[in-house]
Fold each of these.
Amino acid sequence: MSGAVVRRKKGRGLANLRNRWSEPPKDNPISDVAAEHAIRSDEDEDRRHGGLKRISAMWSSFRRGKRDKGKDPETTEAMGPMLVENTSRQHRFGSGQYFFEYLVVVSLKTKDSTSYEPQITYQFPKRDGMARFQKEEEEKTLQAITLFCFPEGINWAPLTEYHSETFSFVLTEIDGSRRNGYCRRLLPGGKGARPPEAYCIISSLACFGLFSKIFDEVEKRRQISMAMIYPFMQKLREAPFPAPGHTVEIKSFIPESGTEIIRLTRPLDSWLEHVNFNTLFGCLTDGEVLLVFAAAVLERRIVFIADELGTLSQVIHAVAALLYPFVWQHTMISIVPEILIDVVMAPTPYLLGVQKRLLDQVTDQSDLLVVDLSVDRKTTFIASIGDESSILPPKLQAEILEALSKRQKPTTVEEMNRVVSEAFLLFFVKTVGHYGSYVKHRRAGEHGVFEKRSFYKAIDSKTTRHFVKKFLQTQTFDLFIQEVEQQPGPQQGIFHKKILEYQEGKKKEKTKKR
């Protein structure tokens, strides 16, 4: 894939790039995403820059200041006890939500003899009856989507063979609301050399495995006819999103095959359904994952390097999931479009996925961790601060590695997710799991107050106390505690359940020793 792309010249710096997003165009600075017409109206030019403004807002304001109150469905559902088997519609489907907002097809259209421009050539459903400002915002988002579907830029060579790949990205609005983009790139039917095209589904739901299966069905129908996609997506749009552990059935007719029944099942552990830890641990050793986790916990700048877009997106989502029950509060771009490569110059924390051909535009930065995920890499950590191995308490590091070593190889996605999530969740239980005892409520119904100093002093281990002192300074922990302080009742959810189990286990150990 990367062999079909010609490297662009390096950008002019983050400050200049951000100015280009917020000021009128000068000398056509974004000609690599210009339309096929040589002369464009002011309105068209504004629309193009609107897409770049939207992307600028996505990474510069990513979940800044407070956590999104309209949480992703898997986060919300994880806060309560696991759903029990119930055949009622209320329990089989997730709170009236539907699978997706819309599907778009992004094609590479010839711009000149040497370059292509990504354009949306199909959209389902069409957005009609929208107010003017809504339509303008939608057009900005759609333009941003084209850049994420083809982050390599404009220089492509027609191909005769291309292995389809699936990846994802996150669209974050200025208000903190999030939408997930699921993308599959493939080579359209035809003869001779031709550029690939991308199918992109936009949804508020985070469930990578489920949407990968949907793309399998879309790709199968695309091989027959573009017209076959519409009825399938219409059926899917009418179907309610299933609750964790449940299945929805979609009936779809295919010529010469008849009516097929497609079964789409959500995993029971809904907070992990967007994650595949196999990819992360397939690229890195257990020890290397631990170093990346340590840097992420302290909210450092981390760049992942790979050739495959699917590898980048899955690894970054997996690293973010290791932080559960905490949420990465800063910039996270699983695949950085080439036109936005100067985002690596941002001084604030980030998790970025960058294609390997752009590596030379990353390594000239300091104070960051650059992780090479490539199969043919010479070294995993191309750049590092150097203290990553000493961030976590040594005893707890050893316990995580021991827990990870117990997994079977090879293992299923579900089993891998269970082992990994439990190992890292227990780390947070042991380091900060006593937080609930130090959130004091003066009166019933009032917000609580977190007694940070008492919480910190209650830790016996010197190395654990040293780590927690640093962790308390992160926005990740700060916003977590802010939400806890605002909850009038007792804590609920998986994390609280694990804390109670751990505390009960310690009580039993003390009883045995007496």
Note: Residues 305 and 354 are 5 Å apart (CA to CA).
Amino acid sequence: MEEGRDYTPEEFEAMFASQEGSNRNEEVEQGEEEEEADGSKPSGKVSYVWKYYEKVPVPNKPRHFRCVCTVCRDIKKIMKSYAWSIGTGFGSMSRHLRNDHGITASGVGSQTQTQLSGFMSEQAGGGKPFFYSQKNMIDHMATFVNLEELPFTYGESVNLENFNRLALQPSYSHVNRHTLKDRTMEQYKEQKKELIAYFANFDGRVALTSDTWTSKQNNPFMCVTVHWIDNDFFLQKRIIAFDIMEEKHTGYNIYLRLKKTLDKFNLTKKLFSISFDNASANTKCIDYVLQMDDILLNGDLVHVRCCAHIINLSAQEGLAFLAPLLEPIKTCINWTRNARSMKTQWKTLCDKHGLRNKQWGTDCATRWNSTYKLIKQALRYKNVLTEFYNSHQRDEDAMIDNSMWTIAANVCNLLKPYYNATNVFSLVYEPNVHLVILECLKIVIAFKTAENVEPCLIPIVDDMKTKWVKYFTSFPYIYGVASLLDPCVKQIGLTNSLLFYYEMLNIIDFDVEIYVQKCIDVLRELCKIYAKDKGESSSSSSVTTKSARFDDQLHSILFRRTQSSSSSTSTLATKELDDYLTHGVDTNDTDFNILLWWKARSIQFPLLSKIARDVLVVPASTVASESAFSAGGRVLDDKRSRLAPPTVKMCVCKRDWDLAKIRRQGAKEFDPLEADEIVATDASSGN
């Protein structure tokens, strides 16, 4: 037997077709009566290997064949072939079946399983033999272990080996931790190479988010996440750097790290923006980024501050003053949680009011969103909590009443837009930069509402408002440009929302018309930069219809008539932009998808749709990078604290890339409380 030779499926088909059918059939029949290897007479049995090999006669050599593995062909791999002649043995062919496909002659302990399940039917036509491969199993185990953030020693588990052998595959063999780690690293390098090649051919621009983090082992890491919208208008995200940064965290050193990462992934000339938190070193880093080539519009759109960070600063400003107002409700909840001897009575009361038996948790004193969610849950149980708690209090002054619940409900209504905005700014697969101004508007409306309905909240709101206007007195142009590219907002919605926003904050020295016109000018300059082949755009009259995305209050704010709304577009040099802005709001879809809207109109607005892809990808927060630190913390847990930095980078990046394939980055369990509505009047009425 000669050494095996590899064939591609195409090479095999060509070779197989070159033989005359009658000659091949004759030789195959003759081969079935071959002599045994020791020269004895045939036993009447045909070797099992012929179930998995195709004999191809060798020209001009009677009784000689190339035997091609049909298992390799079926699973679309490079096919092994072996030289064989009648009267010789099958050692090489049987070893190939055993080692590469797990197929043996014995039915006991065989690695061949017939799968008739729906899964197999969908994947391979149904009822087709499934061939177990140890190598294939290791590949998938490496992916699974990393996705589930398990240690590499998982494959060495005796219990896992016993389970697989007894319940799934008798030929399963444990996987050494070094083998598993090496295979994971190989997969990571392969995926990284594919990602670099993809960006080399990518014709759009990308947005970055970056942040730094120190692990439990006191190792400083820097994370860089890239965001882009692909040609099918799907928003994509990948972690492309998770490196240890031992040098001082200065603006220049951060810039050098970013530049190195951009160069490595072919993104240096494709940068649109960078989202940072408010650290001074990050601000200094932007000064160096602006000196790079191919930065658009002198960097007017490059620096994006993390909105979630600003929201947190404002909410934390009022948290210390809100705590005394919520103390009676928290005391009631804590007492109820600790009243273990009265669980039956509590359950009976819950059943009486048609509520499930609630087990109360604790809030974190330094996290406003934890307090918000706890009070929100308590408002659903206010009647049960009041009856249960007051029935065991002898001192009337210690009891809770409706006035306390009213304050709690008004506090919750004050924090609700903060909580909703944080969730919006944390979206992974949906754009959020065009929603920043609208979410900020909702927050300042909540300021005014809280001052009107609850006098005790006025000083607290003043402190929160002071912190708020420190960062959001003037919006970066990227937010205005993105709002213009929202077909449900456009120029009239942006103008009116800003007018109402500054009215609520009592800011009278900000010229909204100048800001909006500057955003239009920026968009016009982008049109000139992106313009290569100007397409014809059909203009239409301005029609504003009510969008189901906004409630009545917000809609009345956005689409009030203003003196400048009808004339500001007349000076635009770009007809495509002029046609778009004058078209007005033309959607009434509650499930409005801005990316699909632009995709559907990429022919009508070829330039603007390309600009929209690059603008709408800008993330409003650095949550993407901060979530990577959570993953890094799980990777570097107490049991794996000695992992080397390159291994940590491999685990974090590869896990993110594998989750991206199934669009599960940032996935979390559904919180039913997010659908609840809190109305202060309900608390006061006791309903």
Note: The longest helix spans residues 307-338.
